[in-house]
Recover the amino acids of this structure.
């Protein structure tokens, strides 16, 4: 009986609501595409914080929408098209793998602004790219890692062997080696941005090799959860503060703070001043933040790490400053020379001292 | 009290009616779930099932996308259904789909940048071959060594995924990709592209192949002796043996056909909608097709409809996610309910429900 009533209700409702699709057109609509779930506690969570900040900053003037867990591939193009059709004025695509889809859909919707995170292709005037200088944060984490490791083995969970990730590995290693000449680094490639099971497996494999400090370039908290099970090992929050694992194993963190950029760009759409840009900000502008260094780190190390953070913020220190050689021993940067952005964006080699090959 | 009574023969009416009933039950239970999540259930259900088809804002784009999404599902599910009918369980279509894409893409890229018109047909053949080869491994292991094809075919999916990653990073990586993983874009190279055949319809060669597979499988099962053997082997294995059906031959044939069709689906996807071999090129079509095959009652026409319905829940589900802010997990749960209810109401085909009053049975 009940079922029949529900049925009738559903049928009736189906008919009634068909006409109710009119939307307020005066609001600016900002849409976000996420590669993982907003509850990943890392990368996607942090982008979603940016969305919330936009909503907070503009209140009634904007409407926000998002879609999580969008695979990087054919599905992304459909999601983007549907978003553009739904009236989004600006769409943030927050993973590297959306590059082709973003540019393809941007061609079809010239009036919609597209902002692609961590990419380099701006095929159309309505596509901008933005990224953060994560390698600056890695320099600080590398310094802590070099001091803290007792086995002199640090581990790194890489997602994909692309320049952005390789920058992080090199920066971590350079700064760990600087404070600890005996340190070695082992890299495990997970080939995913978000897969807690795979990330945990990678952490396990590294711990079994005797690694006691792990850095990761994947999106979940799984590596920290794995470290928490093994006394004497530490790691860092990645993309988000991951404060739940304080004071150890999470001894510090690199926080991506997208909120200022998102507010600026959505504001530009509202004002009609949006232009194509290629933004790459770091610690100085607050886009990359260093999370609290906990009491698990000795005061001297903490002070050294904070001094490095401040030097990078002040522009007096660049994490890639010569003399630096490439892995095969050929010179890369001369004494005092700093890496150009072009070099960094195309980085496809390890620096001298790292053992192992980048997958080819 | 309810009493279940086994039917002497499965009810024809319920066999056809249960998928419809399962969809309705899913709408009701899903609606309740959406209501608990604080969303208007009627609006959510409407966004999933109605808007992609009829909403003026989305329909012109979503309708063709339905075919794009349903094409590979139907193509793979048709192949699987033949084996499933005969009691041959190929669970590894996802792996065969990947191998089809790799073989096909490799065959084509070997001739880059030639513009020869024979390249695409060659890739199609190579794609089918790749899927077939991958399915032959569990098939031969079963006929020769009596291994379980469910396990072998499933585990080979993971082998195929690793191969895919290594291809995207190594042999098939685009030399012009600046060190990034992924092959050249096959949909932008005219010789290998699998474009929309009629603009605005979503119809590409993979969708055409899916329709042909539906018709061919219908004729095979209704009119051909092989179809009769398949049905006999599944419904009455002993009788099949007396009728001279060679079970090993049937395993090789059914696994081969399903592997080849999955390989074709992979090839059409990599040359069309996906465009390139990348590390996460496969998006679960091979597994979802198993649901489609059962939702369609292993019947070709049923599979056609089930594939379209499944595609609708994907596309409508995406719409509902960002239009209503539903979490993606809720959409996955909704799709899971569909299979759950289908299996649950399946009972009605084989059993009769009687009202009784606790008399001694």
């Amino acid at each position: 009986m009940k079922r029949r009533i529900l049925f009738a209700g559903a049928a009736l409702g189906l008919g009634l609501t068909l006409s109710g699709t009119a939307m307020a057109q005066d609001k600016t609509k900002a849409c976000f595409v996420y590669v993982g779930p907003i509850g990943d506690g890392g990368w996607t969570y942090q982008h979603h914080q940016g969305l919330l900040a936009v909503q907070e900053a503009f209140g009634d003037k904007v409407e926000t929408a998002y879609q999580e867990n969008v695979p990087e591939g054919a599905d992304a193009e459909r999601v983007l098209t549907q978003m553009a059709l739904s009236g989004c004025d600006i769409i943030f695509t927050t993973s590297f793998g959306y590059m082709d889809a973003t540019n393809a859909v941007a061609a079809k919707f010239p009036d919609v602004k597209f902002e692609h995170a961590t990419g380099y292709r701006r095929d159309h005037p309505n596509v901008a790219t933005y990224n953060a200088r994560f390698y600056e944060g890695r320099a600080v984490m590398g310094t802590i890692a070099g001091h803290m490791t007792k086995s002199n083995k640090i581990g790194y969970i890489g997602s994909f062997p692309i320049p952005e990730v390789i920058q992080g590995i090199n920066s971590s290693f350079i700064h760990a080696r600087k404070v600890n000449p005996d340190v070695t680094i082992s890299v495990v490639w997970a080939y995913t941005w978000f897969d807690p099971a795979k990330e945990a497996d990678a952490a396990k494999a590294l711990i079994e090799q005797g690694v006691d400090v792990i850095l990761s370039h994947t999106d979940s908290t799984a590596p920290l959860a794995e470290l928490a099970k093994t006394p004497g090992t530490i790691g860092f929050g990645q993309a988000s503060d991951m404060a739940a694992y304080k004071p150890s194993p999470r001894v510090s963190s690199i926080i991506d703070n997208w909120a200022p950029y998102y507010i600026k760009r959505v504001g530009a759409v509202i004002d009609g001043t949006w232009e194509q840009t290629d933004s790459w900000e770091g610690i100085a502008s607050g886009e990359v933040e260093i999370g609290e260094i906990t009491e698990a780190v000795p005061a001297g190390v903490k002070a050294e790490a904070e001094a490095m953070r401040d030097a990078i913020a002040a522009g007096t220190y660049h994490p890639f400053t010569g003399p630096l050689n490439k892995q095969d021993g050929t010179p890369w940067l001369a004494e005092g020379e700093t890496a150009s952005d072009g070099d960094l964006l195309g980085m496809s080699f390890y620096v001298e001292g790292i053992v192992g090959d980048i997958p080819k | 009290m309810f009493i279940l009574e086994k039917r002497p023969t499965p009810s024809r009416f319920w066999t056809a009616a249960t998928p419809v009933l399962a969809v309705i039950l899913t709408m009701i239970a899903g609606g309740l779930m959406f209501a608990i999540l604080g969303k208007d259930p009627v609006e959510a259900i409407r966004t999933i099932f109605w808007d992609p088809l009829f909403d003026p804002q989305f329909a012109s784009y979503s309708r063709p996308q339905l075919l794009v999404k349903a094409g590979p599902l139907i193509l793979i599910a048709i192949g699987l259904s033949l084996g499933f009918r005969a009691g041959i369980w190929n669970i590894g279509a996802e792996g065969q789909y990947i191998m089809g894409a790799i073989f096909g893409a490799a065959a084509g890229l070997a001739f880059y940048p030639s513009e020869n018109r024979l390249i695409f047909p060659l890739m199609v053949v190579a794609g089918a071959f790749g899927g077939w080869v991958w399915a032959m491994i569990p098939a031969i292991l079963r006929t020769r060594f009596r291994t379980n094809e469910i396990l072998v075919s499933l585990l080979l999916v993971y082998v195929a995924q690793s191969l895919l990653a290594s291809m995207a990073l190594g042999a098939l990586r685009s030399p012009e990709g600046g060190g990034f993983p992924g092959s050249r874009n096959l949909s932008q190279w005219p010789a290998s592209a699998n474009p929309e055949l009629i603009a605005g319809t979503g119809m590409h060669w993979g969708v055409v192949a899916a329709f042909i597979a539906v018709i061919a499988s219908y004729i095979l099962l209704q009119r051909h002796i092989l179809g009769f053997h398949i049905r006999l082997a599944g419904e009455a294995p002993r009788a099949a043996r007396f009728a001279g059906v060679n079970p090993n031959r049937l395993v090789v044939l059914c696994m081969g056909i399903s592997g080849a069709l999955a390989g074709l689906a992979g090839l059409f996807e990599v040359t069309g909608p996906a465009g390139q071999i990348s590390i996460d090129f496969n998006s679960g079509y091979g597994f979802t097709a198993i649901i489609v095959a059962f939702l369609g009652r292993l019947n070709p026409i049923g599979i056609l409809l089930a594939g379209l319905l499944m595609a609708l829940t994907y596309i409508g589900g995406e719409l509902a996610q960002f239009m209503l802010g539903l979490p993606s997990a809720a959409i996955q749960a909704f799709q899971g309910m569909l299979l759950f209810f289908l299996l649950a109401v399946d009972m009605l085909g084989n059993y009769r429900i009687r009202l009784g009053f606790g008399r001694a049975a």
